[in-house]
Design brief:
- By secondary structure, the protein is mostly helical.
- The chain folds into 4 domains: 1-66 and 226-308, Rossmann fold (3-Layer(aba) Sandwich); 80-171, Alpha-Beta Complex (Glutamyl-tRNA Synthetase, domain 3); 312-368, Helicase, Ruva Protein, domain 3; 369-470, Arc Repressor Mutant, subunit A (Orthogonal Bundle), CATH 1.10.10.350.
- Helices cover 47% and strands 11% of the residues.
- It is built from 19 helices and 12 strands.
- The chain has helices spanning 16-31, 50-63, 78-90, 101-115, 179-189, 205-215, 245-250, 255-263, 277-283, 298-311, 314-327, 339-349, 356-362, 375-381, 386-399, 405-419, 424-435, 443-450, 452-469; strands spanning 3-6, 35-40, 69-73, 94-97, 137-140, 147-152, 156-161, 169-171, 194-198, 221-225, 228-229, 294-295.
- A 3-stranded parallel sheet has the order 1-2-3. The protein has a 3-stranded antiparallel sheet with strand order 4-5-8.
- Helix 1 (16-31) packs across helix 9 and helix 15 runs antiparallel to helix 16 (405-419).
- The longest helix is centred in the C-terminal third of the chain and has 18 residues, at 452-469.
- The protein is elongated, with a radius of gyration of 32 Å.
- Bound molecules: glutamic acid.
- Glutamic acid binds next to loops.
Amino acid sequence: MVRVRFAPSPTGHLHIGGARTAIFNWLFARHNKGKFILRIEDTDRSRSTEESIREILEAMRWLGLDWDEGPYRQTERMEIYRREAERLIREGKAYYCYCTPEELEVIREEMKKRCGVPKYDGRCRNRKEPREGVRPVIRFKVDTEGETVFHDLIKGEIRYPNSQLDDFIIVRSDGTPTYNFVVVVDDALMGITHVIRGDDHLNNTPKQIQLYRALGYEPPKFAHVPMILGPDRTKLSKRHGATSVMAYREEGYLPEALFNFLVRLGWSHGDQEIFSKEELIELFTLEAVGKSPAVFNPEKLLWLNHHYMKTYPVDKLSELLAEFLEKEGIVEDASKIDRKWLEEVVVAFRERSKTVKEMAHHCAFLFKAPESYDEDGVKKFFKPEVVPYLEAIAEEIENASQFTKEAIDEIFKRVLDRFGIKLKAVAQPVRLAITGRTVSPGLHEILLLTGKEESVRRIKKAVEFIKSLG
Ligand code: GLU
């Protein structure tokens, strides 16, 4: 039975890289009909916050990453770590170290000169007596002979010279256990079969393997995922734009699009780009995760999002649009908007909107008549000769008994015939009058969505404006 975990440290947002790790673990669990466990690594109390935990859970839920167990919190498991640390001491595999920070400084300098690595020399290994006034740390007796060899499911065989290691701290002087120790205790006791994580942890693995053996636990299989680079091929960071999952939600990205995008950062299936979740569960294997770093391409994310916008269920998309209309200050209370009508808005705008936020701005004119008109548009389309055409259209609309696509066609046809002009002569002036802009969905759509009375009002207002130009 496969059991994997995602083990975020709640010291900030859920980062794009962390989300990808979570997704790989989740897909691996679902593909193998195993369990996905969520564990909050909050032993570093000075850096962990409740706010961060809330945000991580919210981001995971938004991405659709449901967990089968947890969230476990390491701060609720302190008793277990204490017991395990004491066991190691009892068995002579760990010891109290009373060295002061100043002493450690000197020792590291010396060791650096002696063997090139600024490490602890293990001098407290044989100490029998406590030291007055010093609260000890607990160090693990590391085997510095030979090498640690393990098979990484992504990187292949890894050989690590143990001479690089030193007796590292497993419990700090304030009694809190350290990451390398608790991660081993938890992964072992939680029956984790595969540790899938970022390759920034590769150097921790030899230490952890030694701890597994000392504690008498079987090490899991390891899979270290190459990191994510920014478009300029340096480590992905804030410089490259938003790096937190929630920032993408705020920008109007769809969770399915971000999910699809993140999976493709490192995993591939031929040159296919678009995958449903069901397909991913079916196809995902660690063998198909690449060995080299993946490059984050924001344009591709935008492209994928646009794809998902076009194929998203209309009712869901209109709910999101309502949310963004409010958030962007376009309407005050989106609950007042008729949902059937809003779904028509979605259908009219989804083709031309790459994000929900963009869609909200594209359709903003429906909620508020233009206060000004696009300048180039005014020069090109608001000429004195269009005044009678616009007046005629406004009048026809006003007198129409029905306001449907067919009725609008008829109205335009009659006006064009009357003046002997082509649609081109009135289409852009009408568009500019209704939207204030020169690009928008089709004329029918914007007129129908704006509604009969409001359309008349806007066209008349444009007429006044053109007249005022003199
Ligand atoms: N809390 C660690 C991190 O966020 C987890 C590392 C691991 O998966 O072992 O990096």
